[in-house]
Amino acid sequence: MPKTFDILKKRWMEVGLLLLLANVPWLAQTLLRDRHSLTMPLLSSLLGLFIMIVLTIFRAGFLRTSFLYGEQKQNFKTLFTVGKEFFVQLFFFWVIYGVPLGFATMALNRIFVHYFGTSSRLSFMLPLLLLSIIFIKIAILIPALIITCKLNVIDAFKALKNYRILEAKELLVLFAIQQVFGFVRLLDKHLIDSKTVLMATGFIGTIISNLITIAIMLSAIKFIADNTVDACAKAHPTDGLSE
Fold first, then answer.
1. C-beta of residue 83 within 8 angstroms of C-beta of residue 59
2. What is the pTM of this model?
3. What pLDDT does residue 61 have?
4. Does residue 241 form part of some domain?
5. How many domains does the structure of the chain reveal?
6. Which of 172, 145, 147, 127 is nearest to 227 (CA)?
7. Average pLDDT of each block of 10 consecutive residues along the chain (243 residues)?
8. Structural domain that includes position 46
9. How crowded is residue 243: how many other Cβ atoms within 10 Å of its Cβ?
10. Residue 192 — left, alpha, or beta (φ > 0 → left; ψ -120 to 50 → alpha)?
């Protein structure tokens, strides 16, 4: 499989679509923030849910076609057609992973608030950072296994023991960059007074953050593909490695 950044560069138009979709919720929330209406929170939530579904499908299609065809460009219809096959399993994973993670984050948050106080940014950032590090293997490799090997969630969890996350050097570097960038973005909100400048840096920051996320996911696909092509072929002998 080609290098992560070669795929991102060659398929820049598809990456642009993913970034556009990922930024719509941020734009909507920012533009509607000052509008006082009972329907605004509902509309914002429904829009966010719709965009999440569409983004998940397109992103899965991008990752799957990257595994199959590398740098070869694909049209948006192909991404949607390929990606919708994985939506149910990816949604199921995020439910069984995201809900417990949310409760764990809130529990740790209460502990950190007790020690650092409610005004400290550490009270909110450290629990999330800690849990992200603890569950990095599950959060990143399970979706990659689902997409690369066409496994269901249960089989993906079973296959997880065959991989050592510490061997995924590129993935870990990107993850570290993502965490550092997250802290920098948090500082911006407290150091910048101008609302216009804050919106501009927020928009640019959101784009960069989402680009790093795509790179992490693509790196995970590459890691799985480079290490277990035979295992994927055996899991689906009639499907092979092409569509």
1. yes
2. 0.83
3. 96
4. no
5. 1
6. 145
7. 91 95 76 57 76 94 94 95 95 90 82 68 72 90 94 93 92 92 70 61 84 96 83 44 39
8. 4-235
9. 12
10. beta
